[in-house]
Amino acid sequence: MKQANIFYKDRHAGVLTETDAGYEFRYLSDYLSMESPQAVSLTLPLRGETYTSRVLFPFFDGLIPEGWLLDVALRNTDISMLDRMSLLLTCCKDCIGAVSVVPVEEREESDV
To answer: pTM (2 decimals)?
Structure first.
């Protein structure tokens, strides 16, 4: 099971999880209770319930690089182009925009 912490403008907004049935995304209750929280995407509006999908949510899939940059990532790792979650975890920690994707293990190690 792969997991990613999702940050919106350096605020920990939620957790994305790859499960046997597909994917889950949930906003953290602390984030939802902040003053004026922002949704990470228009397609994932703020709510306390978990979002589920059989495929990677289009918003997160859209963060994965395309073209020559994807080719570079695939050449320098042993990740399959079909393993969208691994590509997201590898390539999207510092992507363009307000959202960052940080693997759970990486974040926990840096906090020690």
So the answer is: 0.87
